[in-house]
Specification:
This protein is α/β, with parallel strands linked by helices. It is built from six helices and four strands. The protein binds 4-nitrophenyl phosphate. 4-nitrophenyl phosphate binds next to loops.
Length: about 150
């Protein structure tokens, strides 16, 4: 069973909360969460432009609050999805012995690679496009896996 999924980016205010909102919409029976490898934005809602872009496609991210990923998350979740290769490397470094969670790239269903960080690129629509495409494929996989 792969019911508990954690999306992880750097700040937890752009890419991973967007992925959380999009995956929740497609997998309403799964437990979906997000976190950041960094600690700068703990307790903050998703970045305004990321929220606005998501809302135009029907995803309300306003209730989400940033938190930092912890070693305990590797025991609480079945699958941890890194939004880019730096996030993946940071997660692989902190993974405890005997971790329950599998670690993968969020874009693996699209052949891998990074979701470019819109906080820096300012391309919030492009990030959402990628996040939605991969979410569609994750949902097909995971519904099959747990159904
Ligand atoms: P995210 O974007 O990792 O997609 O949430 C970022 C937002 C803020 C910062 C870095 C990445 N920052 O350094 O403040």
């Amino acid at each position: 069973m792969t019911d508990r999924i954690l999306c992880v980016c750097l700040g937890n205010i752009c890419r991973s909360p967007t992925a959380e909102g999009v995956l929740r919409a497609r997998l309403p029976d799964h437990h979906i969460d997000s976190a950041g490898t960094g600690d700068w934005h703990i307790g903050k809602p998703p970045y305004g432009p990321a929220q606005a872009a998501a809302l135009t496609r029907g995803y309300d991210l306003s209730g989400l609050r940033a938190r930092q990923v912890s070693r305990a998350d590797f025991h609480r979740f079945d699958l941890i999805l890194a939004m880019d290769s730096e996030n993946h490397a940071d997660l692989a470094r902190m993974a405890p012995e005997g971790a329950r969670a599998a670690l993968a790239m969020y874009l693996d269903p699209l052949g891998g690679g990074d979701v470019p960080d819109p906080y820096f690129t300012r391309d919030f629509e492009g990030a959402l496009d990628l996040i939605e495409q991969a979410a569609h494929l994750w949902a097909a996989r995971l519904r099959g896996a747990s159904g």
